[in-house]
Amino acid sequence: MSAHQEFPALKSGSQVREPMPPDGIPASVLIVDDNPSKLKAVVSVVSGMGLDVTTANSGREALRLLLKQDFALILLDVKMPMMDGFETATLIHGRPRSAHTPIIFITAEAGSDSDRFHGYTLGAVDYIYSPIVPEVLCAKVRVFVDLFYLQRKLLLQADELRESKMMLRELASHQELIKEEERKRIAREIHDELGQNLLALRIDASMLHARTGDLHPRLHQKASYALNQIDATIKSVRGIINDLRPPVLDLGLQAAIEWQIEEFRRRSGIACDIMVRDENFDRDLGEKSATALFRILQESLTNIIRHAQATQVQVDLNRDNGWLYMKIADNGVGMQGNGHNKANTFGLAGIKERISMLGGDLQIDSGNGNGTILAISIPLILP
Ligand SMILES: Nc1ncnc2c1ncn2[C@@H]1O[C@H](COP(=O)(O)OP(=O)(O)OP(=O)(O)O)[C@@H](O)[C@H]1O
Ligand SMILES: [Mg+2]
Prior knowledge:
alpha/beta; binds adenosine-5'-triphosphate; binds magnesium ion
């Protein structure tokens, strides 16, 4: 079969589309031929495709060039003295760096090297007969260069995706920080402004209560109501402050966790044990990590109240080899279906995000009817 028969659609002089590099950098092509005039002819065709062309006049020279540079494609003359095209190709593909570089062999008329091509029927390898038909050469080169550009485009897109994911993560982390700061500020303001005013009000009300007594029984009773009302308000203000940012967090993570577990027991009536395997387990833990772990435990315990139907919860805290571990296990019904990835729920997604922002890890063991275990590990910032 002649080269013309192989590509009947291509006619001499037809318009050839140039492959477009995704980043504007043209692909490098290596052309190897010991015959200067044949080399010149191939170069003139390939150069017209907007490619970066390098030449070599022997297999040895080609191998030397490959030590310094990677190529998107190699055009390799089969008949060369010393080291022929097949030997050169074997050495090229034997090197890890160029193992997958596509090769187009340039060979004499059809049939002459057909036996030897059998060894090259797999992988990114093709051949073309000389005398060369420019359109056929262009078409073959274009296939490999298009593939190369596609691969480069995918790599560029993967880089962009990685970068934008990192930026999103940084943004989320920053927002989390701002949110926590804002909660702290509002909690402080409520405490200082509202709390102080309520206290002053309580002093006045209690004075009124003390001074009225039997002389003004109705006023005395009113003062008593007011006092109760003020006490209830003080209590709910304290609750709001605690929800916003428990002041106990300032005493360290362990104290905050113990406080939260106590609150959980009181609110839910579910038994909850805490096991701290290392005294001072929260030393060297930055404020960011401490707040994140506190919020993670808060969401996990809320999930247990809402979904688990558990009667027993176990919280384990440990540190080892620069890592801090927190395990929250319940004996409830376990996550049903795809609880892990439920649409329009944000608790577990928030937990995952907080952990990955700190470079930590989350393992969830659930769904087998034996309750749910959340195992969290966070790297410590060691001095
Ligand atoms: N301890 C648990 N036991 C059983 N199922 C759980 C447990 N924790 C979570 N789940 C399941 O996983 C799902 C996802 O939890 P997630 O905290 O993300 O969302 P949510 O609690 O339903 O809503 P929210 O967005 O308000 O947190 C829950 O709807 C529940 O089905
Ligand atoms: Mg939840």
